[in-house]
Amino acid sequence: MSDPISDIPAGSVHDRALAAYLGLAIGDALGATVEFMTPREIRHQYQVHDQIIGGGWLKLPAGEVTDDTTMSLALGQAIVDAQGWSMPHVAEAWVEWMRQGPVDCGNTCRRGIRRYMGDGSLAGPLREGDGGNGALMRNLPVVLATLGNAAAFERCSIEQAHFTHHHPLSDAATLSLGHMVRDWILTPDTAARHMPERAAQLVAHYPAFRFDPYPGRATGYIVDTVQTVLHFVLKEPDFEACVVATVNRGDDADTTGALAGMISGARSGMQGIPARWLKALKPQVRQAIEQQVRQLLAITAS
Ligand code: MG
Ligand code: MG
User: Fold this and answer.
1) 13-32 vs 283-301: helix axis angle to the nearest 10?
2) Which ligand is nearest to the CA of 252?
3) pLDDT for 173-212, tens place per residue?
4) How far is Cα 251 from Cα 21, in angstroms, rounded to an integer?
5) 10 Å Cβ neighbour count for 279?
6) Cα–ligand 2 centroid distance for 255 (angstroms)
7) Per-residue confidence (pLDDT) for residue 124, from 0 to 100
8) Ligand 2: distance of its center to the CA of 256 in Å?
9) Nearest alpha-carbon partner for 26 in 10, 2, 42, 50
10) Which of 267, 296, 249, 253 has its CA nearest to residue 195?
11) In angstroms, what is the span from residue 255 Cα to ligand 1's centroid?
12) Distance from residue 301's CA to the centre of ligand 1 (Å)
């Protein structure tokens, strides 16, 4: 049997989309080991943490992923099931996801899903406390299902975001990083120039995101997460170097790793992703991602 990945032309939309999604899962699996650790603790224990070995505070089996990947897969499956965008389908998919007892679920995500279960509302009110990175971390399926339509990308991204996180900084980051991934997938020739421009635009509109000089915090607060991801993605053109540097900042390392892996993967395509990491990723997760990428791209093309 031929390897399905080897049939995908290098540098194609499919290749970059798949690398973005597998990059997300790899960053999640790698980072989960050192989530909530400090850079000093990571150095003390691993020197440099660069192997997918599981463990961490969630005591994961090696190759297992966390909510960043599984919530994305649930969102993407809802788009596939509805054959297009339907927030009620997404809401039900996340209820089912939470019922299955995921290894991790952030407080803001849990509160949004519970609110929907209580009153059926698809969006929460604007809230100062919603500045976590949960909406940003799971948005890749929306990017892949709307590649042909930038307005739909923005509208659907904000809809899925406000289900749990209704906060201007979360909205701005979700759109900005989503546009970077779209650029790398759709127009790779100009994306290298556009990425720093998009980062500069984000900082111009919301100076809180300023990441140069790098403040060094990598928590789940959207500002800290985005500063860390943009700092390393812009500094390290190589997929492996970028993801390793990012997760070794610790703290919300699964999520910063996932987001760095997503953007870096879209940039490098499959050829940039180390074979040892692909092999270490749980096979069911890899297969689910391969299938979902094909299905989401079919929706984009329809
Ligand atoms: Mg996680
Ligand atoms: Mg996390």
Assistant:
1) 140
2) 2
3) 999 999 999 999 999 999 999 999 999 999 999 999 999 9
4) 22
5) 11
6) 4
7) 95
8) 7
9) 50
10) 267
11) 6
12) 31
How wide is the angle at C-alpha 164 spanned by C-alphas 61 and 201, nearest 5°?
95
Q: Are 247 and 253 in contact (CB under 8 A)?
A: yes
The H or E element spanning position 268 is helix 253-268
Omega of the bond prior to 213 within 30 degrees of 0, cis? Answer: yes
Ligand 2 centre to CA of 231 (Å) is: 18
Q: Is 275 exposed, middle or buried (0-12, 13-18, 19+ CB in 10 A)?
A: exposed
Q: How far apart are CA 137 and CA 108, in angstroms?
A: 13
Q: Tokens 């140069």 map to which residue?
A: 212
Please tell me the total number of residues recorded for the chain in this structure: 302
Q: Which ligand is nearest to the CA of 103?
A: 1
The amino acid at 262: M
pLDDT per residue as tens digits for the range 277-294: 999 999 999 999 999 999
Distance 189 CA to ligand 2 centre (A): 32
Question: What is the C-alpha to C-alpha distance for residues 57 and 60, in angstroms, rounded to an integer?
Answer: 8
Q: Ligand 1 centroid vs 103 CA: distance in angstroms?
A: 8
Burial 216-249 (b: 16+ CB within 10 A, else e): eebbbbbbbbbbbbbbbbeebeebbebbbbbbbb
Q: Which residue has the tokens 């979902």?
A: 292
Which ligand places an atom closest to the C-alpha of 105? 1
Predicted confidence band of residue 7 (pLDDT cuts 50, 70, 90): confident
Q: How confident is the model at residue 1 (pLDDT cuts 50, 70, 90)?
A: very low
What distance in angstroms lies between residue 36's CA and the mean position of ligand 2's atoms?
9
Compute the distance between CA of residue 161 and CA of residue 12 in angstroms, rounded to an integer.
29
Q: How far is the CA of 206 from the centre of ligand 1 (A)?
A: 25
